Amino acid sequence: MNTGQNNSGFLYLAGKLKYLALIIAILAAGCKPPDPQELFQSTDVAGANFAKDFQLTDHQGKQRTLSDFKGKVVILFFGYIHCPDICPTTLSDLATVVERLGPDGDQVQVLFATLDPERDTPETLAKFVPAFNPKFIGLYGTPQEIEKTAQEYKLLYTKQAGKAPSDYTLDHSSGTYIYDQQGKLRLYASYGLGVDALVADIKTLLGA
Q: How is residue 51 annotated by DSSP?
């Protein structure tokens, strides 16, 4: 019996089940998948009873909550710096979204919150996050603060051991939370939705 292959298969299945659990949680909150005839291309989660706020620290050491960004559309994504694909791809897409919005991009604030406080220090976040766009902000917290935030946002993340103790990866929820200018959660954008869809949805929020 190949125990390694069995464990790999089990972890893959567990990750899929966790992602399914997140989708179920979103739907259970009174939300539904987007319809081509509806206003948004992301999932409309207005009125959801989760992801209402956070209390984390930005990469410059300032305590932050959602109220700090009232008046802007806030795009919040959770991940980690050592992520091999999803996180840098998402941040790159969001940088393109802000660029495509032109002057309206000044009314958008992108936040990247780490799920890996062991490795993602304020110093590393300060180098990593603004590299995609100087106005992007990295957020971090203690392991306890990250866990509390994850519960509020119904986030799923699991550490997967690597060859060395510090060489681990994280399986994590990959969706993006989008708030309107009043600080209310409005949309949940699944990974891979695309730049065009995000630009259209944010323009709709800005014009509301």
A: -
Please give the model's pTM, rounded to 2 decimal places: 0.81
CA angle 165–16–37, rounded 5-degree value: 135
Report how far residue 63's alpha carbon sits from residue 46's, in angstroms, rounded to the nearest whole number.
26
Could you tell me how many helices (H) and strands (E) the chain has, helices first?
5, 10
* 109-144 tens-digit pLDDT: 999 999 999 999 999 999 999 999 999 999 999 999
Q: What is the DSSP string of 109-168?
A: EEEEEES-TTT--HHHHHHHGGGT-TT-EEEE--HHHHHHHHHHTT--EEEE--SSTT--
Tell me whether residue 161 is exposed, middle or buried, using C-beta atoms within 10 angstroms of its C-beta: 0 to 12, 13 to 18, 19 or more: exposed
In the predicted model, is pLDDT for residue 35 greater than 60? no
To which residue do tokens 């956070």 refer?
54
